[in-house]
Structures are given as structure tokens and as C-alpha cells.
Protein: Major facilitator superfamily domain-containing protein 6-like
Organism: Scomber scombrus
Amino acid sequence: MKRNKQINVKRALALAGTFTFLCSCAKACLLPFLTLYFRQQGLTPAMTGVVMGTKHLITVMWCPVTSLLSKHYNKRRTVIIGCLVCSAAVALALLLIPSADVNTQSAACNVSDRNSGPTQGAGDHRLMSSVGPTTLSTGTRPKINTTANSHTGVTFPAKTPGGNKSAPVVMNKTSQHDNKTPHPQLSEAVNNTLKEPNISSSVVFHTTSPLATLERNKRSKFKSEEQPEQDKENHFDFMSRLKMMYAQHKLFFLLLITVSMWEFVSAPLEWTADDGLYEYLDFADASDRYSSTRVWGLLGAACGVVGVGSLVSQLSCLIAGQISRSAVHFFCYAGVTALALPVATLLPLYLNKKRDKANGLLKAVQLVRASPRALLCTVTTLLAGMAGSAVDNFLLWQMQDHGSSELHMGLSLALALLSQASFPLLAGRLSKLLSPGRVLAVGAACLGLQCFYYSFLWGPWAALPAQVLSCFSSGALWWAVSVQCEDVATPGAERSVRRVYSTLSLELGSGLGSFAGGFVVQRFGLEWLFRGVAVGLMVWCVCLPLLQWKAPRQRRINYSRLLATEASEASDSESEQERDWLDKAMEDDKSNNNYGRRINH
């Protein structure tokens, strides 16, 4: 049969777009909200950063190995279907892990469902942001509220000028109560001190030394009787804290093991399906249409976050018994993954045994290392990945502290994805104004501005304006990276070079950023994490143009123009040879004619 009957490119692209849409939608239903679930269960920011960082590092090491093995044994479809089934099962197994504290669920729901007035809401939000995420994990919010009230009760009289009159008033009441007893001089002394404003309360206590001594004796006796009870309370408090720490660390290790298993079974999905589809389109001479599937991934992710955010925000705190509404994220992930299974059985795949992906990745690393400008692009993507991990892991924490519900979070994330998908419409005009190196610096600077804006959120909808900048941060940055890949890569190696950049940014940079970001939030708070990330990116954006200017330029080889030049040179040489032959023939003809004329004469 002919090739055009065996391969239907439009059908292959439709199936690939549908599969990418469903897989991205399933991930968006759960992964952006996963750190919120960890916070609700009782993990601290440092523990959350360790779990997410381990997840990214497993992807860096495990994806190339599984992709190579699935190609070597020709088991790509089996790996894809196995990843879908096992990832849904392990994700649902996360719901079986109990939380570290019972009060965390109610505290998290109170933050999400707060419908109080503006003044009260602002005070609560400031309190939550000053306390930090650990209050929800340890369940100490009621204590913090009481201390805040007691603190206001203490500082309010201090602002008034009559702060020293509280003690004389109490003494005056006791003296009036004891008027029946023969102490007329004592009552007169107290009244005189109350009338004179320049006499302090110490003088009053000095003049009322018999009553003060009696009060001190009563207080000392009361404290001596109360001391054993306070020791018991301190002992019980220490034991309760110890049990809470044990439960929290137990929860941390259980979540770390389960999330690691989840990443082991779900990480090979994207690389395996991507390789099979690309080789299929390359076999059909349609590899130039491969990039269209990326847009479907962004659209699927936007639909996922909006759909699950609006659904969860309409539910009550507990949907059935002790099942939290956060479990809806896991159920939606499993449901959309099940919808992708029939498409995976029909997904067009091809096995090209002539290509060795291991050598392709090593060659791509060598190409990147040999170019100074490619190394600068690598550092930029690594820093962008670290900054992106701070946004992915802790932006929803910051929004939750300022009263945002899942609906606000879903709309905010969807706006960022849609603005990122719209950048190709502006890429043509932007490339005429700025070079790819400057576009790379502009993208990193816009990401820094976003992080700086996130540190000053004030309400539920405050994050929406900054999400529009994702068109120029993530969109512009990846456009500049793709142009850099074309400049560096040799023919056929563009995709491998692009995969090197994506792995460094999305996985290695995100892993390192998750580890560092968790400890920064634990020590300094959410606001200072975003401010520190913004300052780091701005400093690099100032240094990047200078380093690009100092870096030596490597001119790109245009192979089509080189072939055309070789063809023109070959034609010129042939024409010169023909011209030489004709000249020789004419000279020979002239010489023969002259020789004949001489003979005739």
C-alpha cells in the first residue's frame, strides 16, 4: 500500500492533541493544588519543599532511563497505559494517609470560606500572614488569637496617660471596704495621693505598707499552692507537643514515600508519548506540525484548573462524613486520567530504531556546553525554574492567607496559562524589535516583577493583574529558548537541545528551588520568599546583557544556502569547462583553416 493511505496525518494530530489536552487537564486538576493539600494535612513549609523537590529530582533521573528502555524493548504503548492506570491509583492512595492534626481541616476551611466584613477580614488576614503557614499545620491558631487579644488588652491602657492609676484605684476600693476597721489615717493617705498628680504609685504602696504586705503574703501563698498544678500543665503541654511532632514527622515520611512512588509511575508518560508521536510524524514527513500539540496542553491545563476550582469552591468543608472537599482534586485527576485511556490505545506511535536517544542527549549537552551564549541561556532557564517553583509551590498559600478560595486560584492560574499560550501571536512583532538574547532578559525580568507583586497581595482577586505578565515571562522566555536551540543545534538535534533546556528548567531548577524555598518560607515567611526571588532575577537580568555582549558570537551555518552555493559553484565550473572546450575547438578550427589556405597557395 502507498504511504499516504497508511498514515493519516490529520487523524494523528487530532489524537495527539486530544491526548495532550486530557493529560494536561488531569495534571492541572491536582498538581497546582497539591501543596495546599499538604498544608491542610499538617506539613510545614520546609517539609512541603522537600516533598516537591524530591518529586522533581526523581523526574530528572527517571525519565531518560524509562524512555530509553521503552524504546529498546518496543513497549511504549504498554508504558503509557501503565502510567495512566498506576498514577491514578497511587494518587487516590494519598487520601488514605491521615492528617497530623484534627484542627488543620477546620482552620483551612475557615481561611477559604471566610465571608466576614472588610475590617475583620483584613485583621484576620494580617494575623494569618504574620503567623505563617505553620499555624495551620500545628493547630495553634486558637492560642495565637487569644494572645493577640490579650496583647491588645495590655497595650490599649498603655496608650492612655493614666496607666499608673490602676493600682491606686484597687487600693482605694480595699480601703473603702475596710472603713469599718479602725484605719482612718490610712484612708486619708490614700485619698491624698489620689488628689496629687505628681505622686506615683510607688509612694502609694509605700504609705500602704501593711495592706501591701498582706496582699504579698496572700499572693505568695496562692502561687505556692498553684505551682504543682502549673508543673503538671507544663508537663502535659510538653507531652502533647512531642506527640504532635511525632505525628507530623510520621505524616511527612508517609507523604514523601507515596509521592515518590507516584512520580515513579507517572513521570515516563510525557517523554514516552512525545517520542512516539514525533517519530510517527517524522516518518510521515510532517514533523514541522509537531509543535501544535503544545497549545492543546496549555488549553487543557487552563480548563482543568478553572473546572476543579469552581467545583471545589461550591462544596462544603466536609462532603461526606470525614472526607474533605480537597479529595475532589484527586477524584477529578483519576476521572480525567480514565478518559485518556481509550485515546492512549489509539495513539499513533512509531519506533525508529536508527535513532539513539541516549547519544542524542549527550550530543545536545555537548552542543550547549560548547556555546557561551547557550550556557548563559542555560543559567537563565535554571534560575527561571527555581523562581517558578516558588510560584508553583507557595503562591496559592499566599492567596489563601489573603482570603482567596479555590475559584480565585483556578481563575488566576487559568489566566496565566492563556496569556502564555497567546504569546506566539506577538512573537513576530517582538522579534523585529528585540533580539532573542534581549527577549530572554525581558522574560526573566517580567517573572521577577510577578514575584515581587505576589509579596504584596491584599485581597482574593489581587493576583489576577500579575498573571497577565505570564505572556511576557514564561511565553517570551520559552520563545527565546527555542530560537537559541535552533542556533546551537545541528540538523536533527533541535528537539534534543530543547529537551535539555526544559529538563534543566522545569525539573532540576524546580527541584532545587523547592528545597530552598521551603526553608526560606519556614524561616522568613512567604513575603520574603517572593521578594528574594524577585531581587535575584533582577540582578541576573542586569548582568545578562553584559555577559551576552562579552560572549563571542558563533555564526549560524545555513545549510540550505551552503548547498545553493555549492550548486552555483558547480554550475560555474561546468560552464567554464564548456567555455574552455569551445575556445579550444575554435582555435583548432582557425588553425586548420589557416593551414589549408597555405597549402592552396
